Amino acid sequence: MNRSVRSVQLGSSPLLASKTPVWRSKLIVAAIAVGFMGLIGRAAYVQVIENDFFKRQGEVRFARTLVLPANRGRILDRNGMLLASSVPAPSIWANPEDMERDPAKLRQLAKLLEMSPAELDKKLQNEDKTFVWLRRQLDEPVAREILALDIKGVYSIKEYKRLYPEGEAAAHIVGFTNVEDQGQEGVELVFQKALSGKPGSRRVIKDRLGRVVEAVGEAVPPEDGQDIQLSIDSKVQFFAYQKLREAVLEHKARAGSVVVLDAHSGEVLALANYPSYSPSKRVNLSGEQLRNRALTDTFEPGSTMKPFPVALALEKRLVKPETPVQTAPGRITITGSTITDAHPHGVLSVSEVIQKSSNVGTVKMAMQMEPRELWEMYSAVGFGQKPQIPFPGVVSGRLRPYKTWRPIEQATMSYGYGISGSLFQVARAYTVFARDGEIVPATMLKTDQQVQGVRVFSAENARAVRKMLAMAAAPGGTAPKAQTIGYSVGGKTGTAHKQEGKGYAGKKYRGFFVGMAPIEQPRIVVAVMIDEPSNGRYYGGDVAAPVFSTTVQQTLRLLGVQPDLSVKPQVVAKAVEESF
Amino acid sequence: MTRLSVLLLLVVVASALALVHSQYESRRLFMALEAERKEATRLEVEHDRLQVERRAQATPLRVEQIARQQLQMRMVSPAITQYVNAPQGTGKVEARP
Fold first, then answer.
1. What 3-state DSSP class applies to A153?
2. Contact of A327 with A354, CB cutoff 8 Å
């Protein structure tokens, strides 16, 4: 055995010893050459001829374009307090087709999603589907817990949710966004474009595990949305809303609005409506709650209109504040229609006409002027004009062209019937008295620039009207309840019959109060409207003036305005020195 | 000649390996950078969220409720306020004990 193995020597292998034909080796060389030629050809094809195609195909397999989402801008109040901001709120979705269905885990999942297991089952019923939202915009910690359950087929998507810390107090101004982060109402809608920004993108190379390993080319950085700073003061806004709500509830009214304007700059410091809604819980919202009444509802302003024709009469030198006007016997007939006063007065001075809110006295003055003159003045203070603030549903009210006025209409307009506007328009119109005869454009955005006003009345006449307004808000006037501690106020009440269909509703009223403070150098203009007070009292002086009073008090204090009336101090000086 | 070739071959191989290594290293560093960036965004977002939360805790409604109910405070009015005029030019009032 051993021997036989040794006997076959390599050098003398019979196989090698045999002569091979030359063609065989040539054939092999040729075959290898052909093989190499094939490879070279293929290489040339891949690297040179169809290079672009292959490069593209390669990239498709490992390069990805990532969208870099832009953050939605925040909405701030005038002091930089947040009114709206976005926070991440992951949405949870499931793929029912291949989902792990462990009953214990599903029960836990249902609990975290705040739904009953039956509800969850229903969502996951259809096993043909590959995508089902389980819940959108959860709080991040909850979402993390859900993912920690580690259920196969349950995933999360990064989404953002808007938070509104001020809640219902500022809801009508700020508005809200929908689940897709698109503004739906208020400032969120108006400034949608500026707030939303532009998403960016970048190309990256991902490895097998989905990790980003390399960036390709330049990234397009996202442009974050701009922050919008409003002129609203969140504290003033809150107080105004709170007082308004109390008044609406107390007087069993249908609704109410309040507008606070900065008399210097025309900035809106607060604008609140009741009923309101909570922007974060928007279920079963009614139009009543959603409506920004102060801007979108027009009504006949009633007696709050009277100072305007009176101011024009002063301006045209037809009367002086102390000129006597005969208002007895409390009615006046114009082309067959009779206008009456609620309480008949005798001879009143022009100032007293405003103080006592006499329709007859106002009409007598208004009838001495041309319709065109009145129309020009009403237009100049903003009636019939759309307020220059960008807001959805802002209305212009109604002021008919003077050529179509009949004498009776000219008369009724002077005490606020047959002309309409929003509470916002009325408030802005009053800035004409607050600013010594100039009217400024109102704005919702914070401005630092000095605003240029348009002169409507002379400073002297505006001051004269302010004095009348102060009388109206003093004892003996129509609204002594407008008085507030420490600050002198002035303003005009209004109690208007509500229009229903073609006529006036018998027992439905709106109570108003529009005024300003401090009366010598007004800093703010406040307008209050209470819609259908039905708890006995309905006069503007009873229902709206108290809201004005408390709002003025808080607003001036927050603005740091020093009281201009001497106040009996209630600070009791103690003999004992306090230690700090 | 052969020696030079072998040497060059070794150099080529070495440089190729160095290239592979540096490519690997660059990807590793890039990944680390990515992770840090992600963390930075996460922290930024968290910061925003906390800011909102802080704000929500300090809304006038909440402040007023706590002040009135828990701390038994009441609104200030001019009647219980002492107004002090700052001397012209200084712009601030000195606090005195």
1. coil
2. no
The tens digit of pLDDT for each residue in A299-337 reads 898 899 999 999 999 999 899 999 999 888 888 888 888
* HSE toward the beta carbon, residue A258, CA cutoff 13 A: 37
Angle, CA of B67, A252 and A172, to the nearest 5°? 65
Cβ contacts of A399 within 8 Å, gap of 6 or more: A375, A378, A379, A383, A384, A419
CA A514 – CA A236 distance, rounded (Å): 17
Place of tokens 């050098």: A11
Sign of the torsion formed by the C-alpha atoms of A509, A385, A334 and A492: positive
A302 vs A492: CA distance, rounded Å:
10
Task: Catalogue the active-site residues of A.
Answer: 303
Task: Order the strands of the A228-229 sheet from edge to edge.
Answer: A160-163, A82-88, A75-76, A228-229
129-168 in chain A: CB under 8 A from chain B: 140, 163, 165-167
Interface contact A241, partner B, CB < 8 A: no
pLDDT at A34 over 90: yes
Query: Are A292 and A444 contacting, i.e. CB atoms less than 8 angstroms apart?
Result: no
Work out the minimum CA distance from A475 to partner chain B, whole angstroms.
20
Which positions in chain A touch B60 (Cβ < 8 Å)? 169, 234-235, 238-239
Q: Calculate Rg over the CA atoms of chain A.
A: 39
Nearest chain A CA: its distance from B33 CA (Å): 10
Identify the pLDDT of residue A578.
44
Sign of the C-alpha dihedral, residues A108, A109, A111, A117? Answer: negative
User: Chain A residues with CB inside 8 Å of B27's CB?
Assistant: 207, 213-214
Q: Which residue has the higher pLDDT, A86 or B16?
A: B16
Q: Is A215 on the interface with B (CB under 8 A)?
A: yes
Q: How far apart are CA B96 and CA B89, in angstroms?
A: 19
Instruction: Decide if A331 contacts A284 (C-beta within 8 A).
Output: no
Residues of chain A contacting B96 with CB distance shorter than 8 Å: none
Give A-chain residues touching B51 at CB under 8 angstroms. Answer: 82, 85
Can you list the domains of chain A with their CATH numbers?
A: 67-229 (3.90.1310.10), 234-281+289-559 (3.40.710.10)
Q: Answer whether residue A392 shows pLDDT above 50.
A: yes
Our CA-based measurement puts residue B54 at a distance from the nearest CA of chain A, in whole angstroms, of 9
Concatenated DSSP letters for A422-458? -HHHHHHHHHHHHTTTEE---BSB---SPPPPEE-S-
Chain B interface includes A570 (CB < 8 A):
yes
**Distant-in-sequence, close-in-space partners of A89: CB < 8 Å, separation ≥ 6:** A136, A137, A138, A139, A140, A143, A159, A160, A161
Q: What does the alpha-carbon distance between residue A440 and residue A456 come to, in Å, rounded to a whole number?
A: 11
Which residues, at least 6 apart from A453, have a Cβ–Cβ distance to it below 8 Å? A435, A438, A439, A440
Taking 80 as the threshold, does the pLDDT of residue A190 lie above it? yes
